[in-house]
Amino acid sequence: MTSTAQELHPAPVLEPGRTILELRGLEKRYPGTHALKPVNLAFKSGEIHAIVGENGAGKSTLIKLLTGVMPRTSGEVIWEGQPAALATPHEAMALGINAVHQEVVLCRHLTVAANMFLGEENSRFGILQQRAMVKEAQKIIDDLGFDLPAHVTLGDLTIGQQQLIAAARATVRGTKFLIFDEPTAYLTRKEADQLFTLIRRLKTEGVTIIYISHRMEEVFELADRVSVLRDGTLVGTRNIAETNDAELVKMMINRSIEQIYHKEHFTPGAAILESRNLSGKGFENVSMTVRAGEIVGLYGLIGAGRSEFVTTLYGRHRKSAGQILWEGKPVQINSEHDAIKLGMALAPESRRDQGLCLNLSVGLNLNLPIYKRISNNLLISNAQERTQADRQIADLRIKTPTRSALASSLSGGNQQKIVIGKWLAHGARLFIFDEPTVGVDVGTKAEIYRLFSVLLSKGAGIILISSYLPEVYELADTLHVFRRGKLVATHGFRTADHEEILTQALAEKQEKLGGQT
Amino acid sequence: MSTEAIAAEKPKRNYNALFGLTLLALLVLLWVILSLSTSSFASANNISNLLRQGSMIAILAVGQTFVIITGGIDLSVGAVVGFATVIAAMLINAGVPVFLAILITLLVGVAIGLFHGFGIVKMGLPPFIITLATLTSLRGIGLLMTNGNSISINNDAFQEFSRNSFLGVPNLFWMVILVGIPAYIFLHHSRWGRYLFSVGSNAEASRLSGVNVQRTIYMAYTLSGLCAAFVGVLLASRIGIGNPTQAEGWELQAIASSVIGGTSLFGAVGSVHGPLLGAFILATINNGANLLNVNAFWQRIITGALIIIIVYFDGLRRRGGK
């Protein structure tokens, strides 16, 4: 595969095509989750190797193992013929393994030059050679063809420019193996092109590139080979010339879904919530209805505006235009408090940051929204506090030794159940689930889906946000596709196929290209 | 409730109770050692004195604990105590009835607490900064008001209160009980207490659960200010003067008492009985060191070492317990 590169660039630093890194049965288990099942894979020097897969497929676990951020559970990593422990990030860097992350992990308050040389400062007699470093950094940046100044504060650059600096930084450190994790998520087309130029150039120098992306067209534009991960398993590796979009998508999402997705159909009742031409930060002109007994799925890429839309419904952000109707009546929702009073419940995307008080007891978490109800003006009724918590624990089969156990000691799925349980107790009618099964194993997923049916049977409506297509596809009675802040398509239960929906969600790129050139 | 549910409650209760008992045992142990090694420790006079010494820090520590549970810190309490002695002294000397003077002083404490809440919630200042700012400026305002002089309080009844006892127990210690019992009920048996914990654990999750986070923060600092002003009244009664430089460094003693009593500076962990015991352990060490003629400088070193030891072992056990 690397033969073209060899012909075009006659003087590679490393011999291309040689195996530089080999994974033998590399495996990672977390308590309750098998994040990466034994993977055997060999990376060649001077290749661009794309890794694709849905969220939770094990991509980030693989990166963390390769960069020494996390220890592996078992298996071997062979680096240039020698077994490598990869126990610390430092060890990985010393070998020449670097990563450029989706989020920029640099010091925003320091200058571009200071960031480029962070940890390897140029100093004489203990005094930093600031001017020399700026000069050198500028030379590197210019060489790479980025039109950026080296003396400014990093935080003054756009996120995309910062990403380019992060990439430039990774190239100056004797890197032989460079991992890009969704690098173009925040880049404009022009910046992405600059990055691709850099990646191709690194390839000619014999650097191995791991390119992780959701965007199929980038994979086909750049990669020599592509590996597909699904549910922690390496499904297969293909030469890019011998595969196509449809095959990769199929490899990514094909699974025995019937066992997991438990779907009961209820006759939808009256409308609970209606959004009419709602606009706000990150989305515009969205109209939809959620009725009792139905699941409304919102599908789209991260950043497509789905989360922004629901947090606006929930009173977190102000709407800029449009109308919200609750049970047929127009309402003003100015705060979460208003939304909760109406009967909305939000199970947020980030359980750890937004959903739970982790270092407090399960019982307190379950009762948090209802303390007003289970206390008189002054005192909490201890008996009610206990019965309410125990009832939710029993109803939802939350696996916890006692209601006094700390929420942090529970598994991800059981934590998710606490989030649901606290709203059940509160008697909410509309449940918003934002990525409810991220980081949750298959068994718990199935249990969470069963909970959806329980909620629906009680006359509730559900908004389900997911970036995992099979999830919304198999569960949603109505499926709305979001792209760049707009609702671009609406389907009924299984009325469209995966490819069609994926295309609608991904079409962004072509649009962007057309718009900018 | 079924017996099962009662059994289920055990682990956490046990842990809290165990830690409380450990502190109590430590306190009793100190008392036994001091009774045996000095002739004067066990005297009624000395015990009363010890209770008086510990009482004021204990009340400060309770207010401080509310703030620390929310994940904040109140550095101003010592300055508020000094400032409150000035307010109380001036009002009483101006002929304001004592009960009214006390009430106004307490309201000043409330106002200072509300100001802290305002700075944190509305201006977005870190608790450390806003309370540090009041710490220095309150001392300054007090000095301006008094021209740097002490104000002698000319009201004997007011001063006698702190010297007298009721049922053989110093009045000042009764004040600890007067504050401690409502504080206990508030923290452990009211929803506002639960909200203090939940905000300290995860403010965002609490907000999304409908908890009024801003009001909770206002409440914590207001209660701390109120406790501090109350201590100011007690101190004015005890020393008979109003002086803005009094109670220097008491905020650190209050924080130390709270931490020794098991409060986590990261928030969401704490109790009322812990800081109370912590305050009396500190008072006992100081008292004992005096009686044993230990160099006063050593007392500070011992206090520091004790903080490190207790917090270290508590942290070990918390981690090990998981």
UniProtKB/TrEMBL annotation, chain A:
Gene Ontology MF terms: ATP binding; ATP hydrolysis activity
A GO cellular component entry from the record: plasma membrane
Keywords annotated in UniProt: ATP-binding, Cell membrane, Membrane, Nucleotide-binding, Repeat, Sugar transport, Translocase, Transport
Pfam families xrefs: ABC_tran
Primary location group: membrane
Chain ranges of the ABC transporter domain: 21-256, 267-509
Superkingdom, taxonomy of origin: Bacteria
InterPro entries referenced in this protein's UniProt entry, alphabetically: AAA+_ATPase, ABC_carbohydrate_import_ATPase, ABC_transporter-like_ATP-bd, ABC_transporter-like_CS, P-loop_NTPase
Protein's cellular compartments: Cell membrane
Recorded topology in the membrane: Peripheral membrane protein
Family: Belongs to the ABC transporter superfamily.
The name this protein goes by in its record: Ribose transport system ATP-binding protein
Lineage of the species this protein comes from: Bacteria, Pseudomonadati, Pseudomonadota, Alphaproteobacteria, Hyphomicrobiales
From TrEMBL, chain B:
Gene Ontology MF: a single term: transmembrane transporter activity
CC per GO annotation: plasma membrane
UniProt keywords, alphabetically: Cell membrane, Membrane, Transmembrane, Transmembrane helix
InterPro entries referenced in this protein's UniProt entry, alphabetically: ABC_transp_permease
Membrane topology: Multi-pass membrane protein
Residue ranges that the Swiss-Prot or TrEMBL entry lists as coiled coil: none
Domain of life according to the entry: Bacteria
Pfam families in the record: BPD_transp_2 (PF02653)
Intracellular or extracellular location(s): Cell membrane
Transmembrane regions: 68-91, 98-119, 125-145, 166-187, 217-237, 258-285, 297-316
Signal peptide: none
PANTHER family: ABC TRANSPORTER PERMEASE PROTEIN YPHD-RELATED-RELATED, RIBOSE IMPORT PERMEASE PROTEIN RBSC
Protein name per Swiss-Prot or TrEMBL: Ribose transport system permease protein
UniProt source species: Mesorhizobium sangaii
